[in-house]
């Protein structure tokens, strides 16, 4: 028993000195790398037990190899460049060319051996968030292992005891490394591929950054006031749509590695929470929802039958999380007349625009001059105009004719005649305006104090 334990320890390369032995390092599988933010089409497993692969939104899954019955992966922690959405890239930390890192997929009962090479400028570790494993594989720097120094490779090896939805992230200089985007998903498929089958199984991490307009490196000391709300380090309109053919069963797996909770809301369907941090939820314990609140550090899997064709919003319901950077310190101008103010301010600030007197929707439509490498606060165009969103927003596209297994964007939904809200004159008093007339001048709000000051005091 003792001998065997020593042998395993040596073979796994987790030596007292911390670094992998030369022998183990030579045996590390090649580290795949990918810097594209396109959603990779899921690949059926080439070896090992069968499973139904997940689809990582704007991401990919890490290839593995089988070595004497052990599933081997190679993660490389390193600086990466990530396109957050067209028009903005960020300098982040991630794994294998990406932030978040590639999704690791394996099967309940698998023994996995994960080589971790540190190409960051400071030490790191990898914690396997939610997995039940031996203490020495938990990846907490200083507590369960020495940190992995720059240039070193460590090996983690453990058996996957439970199927479910998990994450990985550093547990070394954790606030900085997560603020920089070092994180990924870890999906353990059930041993029985017919257990809770779905037609499409999507995963994305909920993450957030604080990147000043015009810059590309996140502020790493921000605690709460993040300004870029992202899924898999992408912001709307950069987040890929979630696609389904009518009648298909869809699972969304989400994990929250931000500093706040996110109520994720789906239009047009109700769903059930089928998976939590601890595993799968029995059928008798589920109830229908249209919003699931995902707390900090939690994972949730939700499932629904996509039985309602259309383009359905899928977003965080904290409305400032569906906006991009800027604007959070702008004063409320609703009801404030600026028509005399703007010319005066323009003498001091030639580019000054008086905005917001009737709300902020004009921000979504206008082409404002922005600093380089900055996303508009509200943006995106749909078939009927500006969508006025940013951040954690995408569209569930349900189509009767979407080919099974296709992840190609089918374009915008065409509503059947008579099924769309429209401008009408019915029931409106004759004096009122309606949308068929030329655009009305913006309403002004003239607030007057009651005139009791010159009435009898
Ligand atoms: Cu949110």
UniProtKB/TrEMBL annotation:
Signal sequence residues: 1-26
Disordered, as annotated region: 27-52, 416-457
Skewed-composition ranges (Basic and acidic residues): 446-457
Annotated Low complexity bias: 429-444
SUPFAM superfamilies reported in the protein's UniProt record: Cupredoxins
PROSITE patterns on file: MULTICOPPER_OXIDASE2, TAT
Annotated TM spans: none
This protein's record includes keyword Transmembrane helix: no
Keywords: Metal-binding, Oxidoreductase, Signal
Keyword Cytoplasm tagged: no
InterPro entries per UniProt: Cu-oxidase-like_N (IPR011707), Cu-oxidase_C (IPR011706), Cu-oxidase_fam (IPR045087), Cu_oxidase_Cu_BS (IPR002355), Cupredoxin (IPR008972), TAT_signal (IPR006311)
Subcellular location: Periplasm
One Gene Ontology molecular-function label: oxidoreductase activity
GO cellular component, one term: periplasmic space
Pfam families per the UniProt record, alphabetical: Cu-oxidase_2 (PF07731), Cu-oxidase_3 (PF07732)
Domain Plastocyanin-like: 85-192, 216-331
Protein name: Putative multicopper oxidase
Originating organism: Thiomonas delicata (Thiomonas cuprina)
Taxonomic path: Bacteria, Pseudomonadati, Pseudomonadota, Betaproteobacteria, Burkholderiales
């Amino acid at each position: 028993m003792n001998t065997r334990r020593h042998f395993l320890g040596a073979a796994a390369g987790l030596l007292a000195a911390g670094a992998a032995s030369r022998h183990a390092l030579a045996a590390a599988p090649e580290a795949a790398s990918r810097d594209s933010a396109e959603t990779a089409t899921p690949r059926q497993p080439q070896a090992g037990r069968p499973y139904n692969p997940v689809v990582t939104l704007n991401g990919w899954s890490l290839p593995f190899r089988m070595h004497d019955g052990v599933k081997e992966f190679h993660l490389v922690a390193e600086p990466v460049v990530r396109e957050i959405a067209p028009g903005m890239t960020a300098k982040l930390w991630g794994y294998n060319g990406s932030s978040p890192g590639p999704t690791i997929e394996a099967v309940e009962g698998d023994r996995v051996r994960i080589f971790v090479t540190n190409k960051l400028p400071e030490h790191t570790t990898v914690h396997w968030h939610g997995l039940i494993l031996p203490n020495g594989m938990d990846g907490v720097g200083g507590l369960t292992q020495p940190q992995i120094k720059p240039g070193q490779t460590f090996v983690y090896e453990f058996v996957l005891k439970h199927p479910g939805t998990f994450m990985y992230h550093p547990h070394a200089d954790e606030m900085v490394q997560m603020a920089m985007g070092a994180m990924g998903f870890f999906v353990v498929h059930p041993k029985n591929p017919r257990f809770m089958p779905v037609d499409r199984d999507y995963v994305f991490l909920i993450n957030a950054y604080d990147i000043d307009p015009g810059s590309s490196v996140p502020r790493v000391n921000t605690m709460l006031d993040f300004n870029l709300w992202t899924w898999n380090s992408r912001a709307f309109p950069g987040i890929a749509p979630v696609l389904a053919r009518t009648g298909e069963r869809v699972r969304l797996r989400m994990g929250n590695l931000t500093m706040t909770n996110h109520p994720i809301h789906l239009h047009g369907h109700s769903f059930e929470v089928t998976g939590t941090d601890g595993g799968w939820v029995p059928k008798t314990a589920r109830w229908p929802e249209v919003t699931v609140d995902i707390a900090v550090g939690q994972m949730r899997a939700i499932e629904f039958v996509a039985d309602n064709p259309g383009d359905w919003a899928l977003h965080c319901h904290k409305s400032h999380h569906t906006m991009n950077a800027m604007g959070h310190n702008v004063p409320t101008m609703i009801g404030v007349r600026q028509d005399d103010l703007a010319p005066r301010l323009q003498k001091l600030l030639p580019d000054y625009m008086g905005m917001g007197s009737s709300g902020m929707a004009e921000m979504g439509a206008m082409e404002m001059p922005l600093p380089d490498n900055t996303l508009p606060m509200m943006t995106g165009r749909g078939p009927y105009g500006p969508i006025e969103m940013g951040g954690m927003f995408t569209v569930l596209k349900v189509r009767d004719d979407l080919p099974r297994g296709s992840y190609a964007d089918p374009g915008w939904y065409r509503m059947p005649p008579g099924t769309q809200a429209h401008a009408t004159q019915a029931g409106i008093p004759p004096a009122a305006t309606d949308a068929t007339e030329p655009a009305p001048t913006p309403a002004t709000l003239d607030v007057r104090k009651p005139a009791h000051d010159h009435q009898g005091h």
